[in-house]
Amino acid sequence: MTQAKYKIIEEHIMKMIDSGELKAGDQIMTEEQLSRMFSFSRMTINKALNRLQDSGYIKRTPGRGSFVSAPVVRKPSISITSFTEDMKLIGLHAGSKLISYEVIKAAAVPEIRDKLHLTDNDMVHHFVRLRTGNNIPIAVTYNYVSARIVPAIDISSLDSSFYGYLDSIGIRRVAKDMELSATLPNAQQKELLQIDNAALLCSAHVTYTIFNNKQVPFEYSKTFYNGDSYSYTFS
Predict the structure, then answer these.
(1) Are 85 and 168 members of one domain?
(2) pTM surpassing 0.85?
(3) pLDDT tens across 165-194, in order?
(4) Is the pLDDT higher at 56 or at 62?
(5) Which residue, 14, 24, 42, 200, shows the most beta carbons closer than 10 Å to its own?
(6) Is 116 helix (H, G, I), strand (E, B) or coil?
């Protein structure tokens, strides 16, 4: 049976992506260029590109062209894997850039104080980081960490894996309460993620550890993911 023409285009582009010849963020040939290359109609090329977009291989932007999509992380909603582990699952190198860091009194953030079971006078580490995969902006994370449980933080660790740092000092994560929602980016998130008004997936969670033989909350984290790069599944 003769293979459909649009399938020939699809397979050609998928092969280039799978082989690494085309990488996430790369622009692929235009409809006109592909039409000349294969001697197929623009309608056939358009169908192939739309199918590739529906499958998540590319993203088409009117007026700009078609670009290879970043690999999408799909994880169960109950997963407590770190961002670094998520990136490894899809073959990307996780990166982190510290945007800001401060130590504040819990009284300044009453919602966090209550979530972490702190008093007004307890201190909280608060830091903001840009998370990347192969240097592509993927998420912005806002962390609040109880200084009662983690008295000091090596700031250099915040430019890599914070959970890796916690492992190195013996802070074991034993559970996580998670909330998911969708939102639009604020000005800072637009700039850091290099997006306009694309929907963001917001994952907020409280992380627990064992302290004085009790399970206690010690971290509240709110991460805003580029919705084109992350999704959660439910079972």
Answers:
(1) yes
(2) no
(3) 999 999 988 877 777 778 888 999 999 998
(4) 62
(5) 200
(6) coil
CA distance 117 to 190: 32
The CA-atom distances, in angstroms, between 196 and each of 184, 187, 225 are 9, 9, 13
Query: What's phi and psi for 20, nearest 5 deg?
Result: 90, 0
Mapping DSSP to helix (H, G, I), strand (E, B) and coil, where does residue 14 land?
A: helix
Crossing angle, helix 31-38 and helix 5-18, to 10 degrees? 110
Beta strands in the chain (DSSP E): 58-61, 65-68, 73-76, 94-105, 123-133, 136-146, 175-183, 200-211, 214-226, 230-233
Beta-bridge partners for 219: 145, 207
Total domains present in the chain = 2
- What three-state secondary structure class fits 218? strand
Q: Give the span between the Cα atoms of 94 and 129, in whole angstroms.
A: 12
- Taking Cα atoms as reference points, which of 235, 223, 232 lies closest to residue 140? 223
